[in-house]
Design goal:
about 130 residues, alpha+beta, two-stranded antiparallel ribbon, globular
Length: about 130
Amino acid sequence: MEQEVTRSKRGRKKKISVSPEGMEENLKKGVAEMLVLFLLKEREMYVNELTEELENRSDGRLHITFPYAIIYRLLDTHYIELGEKRLAPDGRRRQYYRTTTTGGAYLEELQATMRKFMGGVEQILRSGEK
């Protein structure tokens, strides 16, 4: 299926939402914060470790292109905080991040919202199969 491509203000090609690629991009934007919070709730991580973990757990299906935008947004809202700076497995000194108590509560709300939403989507799709 061909998709219409438009140009952004900077002249870059951008995907529009009426294509599978555009839908995928919109879905990723909608769940990226939740996935980052979920991973950081499990343990402290630095940014590259976080993106690698996301890709590994999704078998390469999910990739965050601009992870620092998400990190800064979550820091600004106090859903995550700076952890220690320490040596990563590659020997470099890295800034680690962790979920705050507020971030943990926000994550639970996001997960409940996602489950409710996806349940509704599944119900609609199943009703069309009858």
